[in-house]
Amino acid sequence: MTTITVFKGDGIGPEITDAVIKVLNAANAKLEYEVFNVGAKVYEETGEYIPEKAFESYEKNKILLKSPITTPVGKGFRSLNVTLRNKYDLWANIRPAKSNPCIPTKFDNVDIVTFRENTEDLYVGKEEQIDENTVYAYKIITKKASTRIIRAAFEYCIKNNRKKLTCVHKANILKMSDGLFLHIFEDIAKEYPQIESNSLIVDNTCMQLVMHPEQFDVMVMPNLYGDIVSDLTSGLIGGLGLLPSCNKGDDYAMYEAVHGSAPDIAGKHIANPSALLLSACMMLEDLHQESVATKIRNALNKTFEERKVLTFDLGGSASTDAFTDEIIKNL
Hints:
The chain is of the alpha/beta class. It has 2 domains: 1-90 and 249-331, Isopropylmalate Dehydrogenase, CATH 3.40.718.10; 93-242, Isopropylmalate Dehydrogenase (3-Layer(aba) Sandwich), CATH 3.40.718. It contains 11 helices and 12 strands. The protein has helices spanning 13-26, 40-46, 52-61, 80-87, 143-159, 177-189, 202-211, 223-237, 274-286, 290-306, 320-329; strands at 2-7, 31-36, 63-66, 92-98, 111-117, 127-131, 134-137, 164-169, 196-201, 218-221, 246-248, 253-256. The strands form 2 sheets. It has a 10-stranded mixed sheet, sandwiched between helices. The protein has a two-stranded antiparallel sheet with strand order 6-7. The mean pLDDT is 93. This is Putative isocitrate dehydrogenase, NAD-dependent. InterPro entries: IsoCit/isopropylmalate_DH_CS, IsoPropMal-DH-like_dom. Belongs to the isocitrate and isopropylmalate dehydrogenases family. Keywords: Oxidoreductase. It comes from Holdemanella biformis DSM 3989.
């Protein structure tokens, strides 16, 4: 039995968290939970966005299942996601986007895994007011961070029998920063001759993704590009509501839904918990509970395939609870 920490988050976070835990329990996952409310609502009540006891739980358990947390745009506190990634050095963000034949989209051949460096680039959040009309934002790329994410992507290809790794960059313009990332990729690629490797400028990557996504297998890139490109890949498979995600470091792991907290539908019990559930399946696999993860994915796919009980974003009218119960029925 493994004890994990759970952050319920804001908006729809508590609803989808409860749904996912219900499915995990019904599937007989060997898990125990330490559950905490975090985010803006908790701050209003306690003055803390993440209570100290929640941090202590994560530091003890080292595994976190996290629902979305609201981040103000253009003001207020820095993203708590970025804070967690930096605090616990969760340097690899891994987002697999795979077509599901039961979900109608324009593409039926997408199977792309994005490896995103998670701790530096523009996301260091270092900005400087030069004068009243000028702000500088600092992009930081280091050999250490670049090397470990690129090597992790190659190792993932070996472990998962993936054939090709693409480095995404803007080294034609950012010759020093992205140039460093690209040169490290080219050097490490020589150690993995069995993996086809290539590089692509980020804007061309986006165009190619929406024209011929079948050419991509695994991609690795700096932080900002990874954030944008992985959202794009989610659009190819039906949206962020279907995209799982995990963040890993040397000592800690965090599994999360990367869609927003959707405050406009919070409390209406119509949210789709699929992204968080699929992220939990990634967690189960890392905890060597692969059979449970497979059972849950099969039940979810059957629910999609039958199309009798779906949430509104999937073309149905079911509540979160009804959708969850249908998944459990299909286990």
